[in-house]
């Protein structure tokens, strides 16, 4: 270790202190910064050998002080070392940018070139380094002040947002109250009108009945009076007969009017759905955190959200039909054909309508349509991508379009393909697409082919891969493919290698696939059934069938959040089936 400092002047003479104590005056050759003693060459060697002093820092003749009274070593520096509080800081290590005491040099900087603080401190005040430090402090102070200002501004913003949203909620609640007050008033008026009309009509019948009764009594009295005179009795009886016919007709008219109109208050489906929804009045949606516009910058912390879920055995659940979700739109030109259905965060659902070339975004709390987008072609399969994006296969256009699903649906970009496509899955910046005539292609996000499969030793692997789904993640991920005409489910690894094929007589015209744990939900279009396939054992169990109202199911997804099974079906021309998502809730 080299230590820079004042050189020994020719006229200065410094003697070894240990030797002086023994009565010998021997010129010093070194100085110990720890012991603060001058040493001759002999004492220097012993100092380096002794266990207690061998790690001490020694200065040679070129750099050691000229005397013990040298101003360099006067105890005017009273800044203690943070590591060794009994020692004072006297040295600076340029390599490590640290100030040190003698102990620090002995343990941490033996191989470093060291400067004496007293030698370099005089010019430091005017140096660029000191100026930079002061500028950094000033800049940091400004950033802190800006940050404090932004915090105050954001606190005001928080209060303002809270006040505005509470005001909106109260106003909305008042509007809802006013609306229902008006509807209640209107319904009460209708009931009163019907009641008054019936009461007036029925009350008007009683005098008519009294009149008929009075006439009959009069007729009876006349006949009684003439019973002793047979001639007069005959004449009066014949007169009475004609009068009786008139009175019978009048009584028949009264009987027709003597009826009560049956009326009943019917609850509106939309209101029932609103009450049933846990967020009927509305929801508070947190869009994003507002960041400060100034300061040193921002710290971005990734958050991993989600609940720990317990695997669900769907066969242990009993389902019962619930109120469906209407999905037709006034602008639709055909009945809906919902070929794909995806569950999104915040209880949202995405639906692909093949016949009307649209994609719908539906709120499952209120069963209301939030947004929809009209596409250039017929939408079939879809998959969710990172960053609130969705990829949609346009079957007739042989292309994949990418949608932005943040808030409202909007079309972003697209890639052209070479053949009509059906379904699509996403895995680590790659897409897997199924095409007509049983071809499956793995490609990059620009549509460039990485690998494709369609036959094995000349034999076609698939005939019609209408639907696919992804199971798992990472390299252990697998792709499950349904073949509509071969009535099979095939499991592929992520590199499109065949792993397993499932076939069962119950699985006719398999369409939509959804993974729930290690189980697979299968729509059997041909047998009107929703099946559950245990992927580990290959066992298939029927969950719902035709007796439960299932007709030609296309897709089925289960929401663990809402404990509901959502199913789409298609029977050409049957609007009540095609234009609704059918809902089955857990009993």
Would you summarize the structure shown here?
By secondary structure, the chain is an alpha+beta fold.
Describe this structure in words.
There is one protein chain. By secondary structure, the protein is of the alpha+beta class. Among the domains are: about 1-120, Double Stranded RNA Binding Domain, CATH 3.30.160; about 130-265. The protein has 8 helices and 33 strands. A 4-stranded mixed beta sheet has the order 1-7-5-6. The longest helix is centred in the first third of the chain and has 98 residues, at about 130-225. The model is unreliable at about 1-10, about 70-75 and about 285-310 (pLDDT under 50).
Q: What is the strand arrangement across the widest sheet?
A: 1-7-5-6
What's the β-strand tally?
33
Beta-strand residue fraction: 25-35%
Biggest beta-sheet profile: 4 strands, mixed
Rg over CA atoms: 47 Å
The chain-level structural class is alpha+beta
Q: Which stretches of 5+ consecutive residues score pLDDT under 50?
A: 1-11, 70-75, 287-310
Number of alpha- plus pi-helical segments = 8
Estimate the helix proportion, in percent. Answer: 25-40%
The average pLDDT is 82
CA-CA gap between termini: 82 Å
Globally, the shape reads elongated
Descriptive terms for the model:
Double Stranded RNA Binding Domain, 4-stranded mixed sheet, 4-stranded antiparallel sheet, elongated, disordered N terminus
């Amino acid at each position: 270790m080299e230590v820079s400092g004042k050189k020994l002047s020719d006229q200065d003479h410094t003697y070894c202190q240990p030797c002086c104590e023994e009565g010998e005056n021997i010129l010093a050759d070194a100085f110990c910064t720890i012991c603060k003693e001058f040493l001759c060459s002999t004492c220097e060697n012993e100092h380096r050998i002794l266990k207690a002093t061998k790690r001490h820092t020694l200065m040679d003749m070129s750099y050691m002080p000229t005397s013990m009274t040298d101003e360099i070593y006067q105890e005017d520096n009273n800044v203690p070392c943070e590591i060794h509080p009994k020692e004072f800081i006297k040295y600076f290590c340029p390599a490590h940018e640290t100030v040190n005491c003698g102990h620090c040099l002995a343990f941490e900087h033996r191989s470093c070139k060291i400067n004496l603080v007293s030698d370099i401190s005089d010019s430091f005040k005017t140096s660029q380094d000191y100026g930079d430090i002061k500028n950094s402090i000033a800049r940091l102070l400004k950033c802190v002040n800006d940050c404090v200002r932004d915090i105050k501004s954001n606190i005001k913003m928080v209060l303002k947002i809270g006040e505005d949203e509470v005001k909106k909620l109260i106003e909305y609640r008042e509007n809802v109250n006013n609306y229902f007050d008006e509807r209640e008033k209107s319904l009460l008026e209708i009931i009163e009108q019907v009641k008054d009309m019936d009461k007036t009509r029925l009350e008007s019948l009683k005098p008519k009945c009294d009149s008929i009764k009075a006439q009959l009594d009069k007729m009876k009295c006349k006949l009684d009076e003439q019973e002793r005179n047979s001639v007069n009795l005959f004449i009066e009886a014949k007169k009475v007969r004609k009068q009786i016919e008139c009175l019978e007709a009048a009584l028949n008219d009264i009987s027709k009017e003597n009826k009560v109109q049956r009326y009943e208050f019917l609850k509106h489906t939309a209101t029932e759905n609103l009450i049933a929804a846990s967020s009927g009045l509305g929801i508070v949606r947190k869009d994003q955190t507002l960041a400060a516009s100034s300061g040193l910058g921002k710290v971005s912390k990734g958050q991993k959200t989600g609940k720990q879920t317990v695997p669900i055995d769907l066969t242990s659940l009993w389902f019962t039909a619930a109120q469906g979700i209407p999905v037709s739109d006034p602008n639709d030109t055909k009945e809906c054909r919902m070929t794909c259905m995806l569950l999104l965060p915040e209880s949202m659902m995405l639906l692909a309508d093949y016949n009307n070339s649209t994609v719908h975004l539906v709120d499952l709390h209120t069963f209301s349509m939030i947004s929809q987008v009209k596409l250039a072609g017929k939408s079939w399969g879809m998959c969710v991508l990172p960053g609130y994006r969705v990829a949609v296969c346009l079957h007739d256009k042989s292309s994949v379009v990418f949608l932005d699903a943040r808030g409202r649906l909007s079309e972003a970009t697209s890639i052209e393909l070479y053949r009509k496509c059906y379904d699509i899955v996403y895995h680590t910046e790659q897409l897997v697409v199924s095409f007509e005539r049983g071809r499956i292609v793995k490609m990059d996000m620009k549509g460039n082919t990485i690998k494709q499969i369609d036959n094995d030793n000349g034999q076609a692997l698939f005939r019609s891969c209408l639907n696919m789904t992804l199971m798992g993640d990472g390299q252990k991920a697998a792709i499950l493919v349904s073949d509509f005409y071969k009535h099979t489910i095939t499991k592929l690894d992520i590199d499109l290698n065949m792993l397993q094929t499932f076939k069962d007589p119950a699985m006719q015209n398999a369409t939509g696939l959804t993974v729930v744990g290690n189980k697979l939900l299968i729509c059997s279009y041909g047998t009107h059934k929703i099946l559950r396939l245990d992927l580990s054992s290959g066992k298939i169990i029927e969950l719902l069938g035709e007796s439960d109202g299932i007709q030609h199911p296309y897709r089925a997804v289960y929401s663990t959040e809402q404990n509901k099974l959502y199913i789409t079906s298609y029977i050409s021309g049957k609007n009540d089936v095609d234009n609704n998502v059918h809902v089955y809730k857990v009993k």
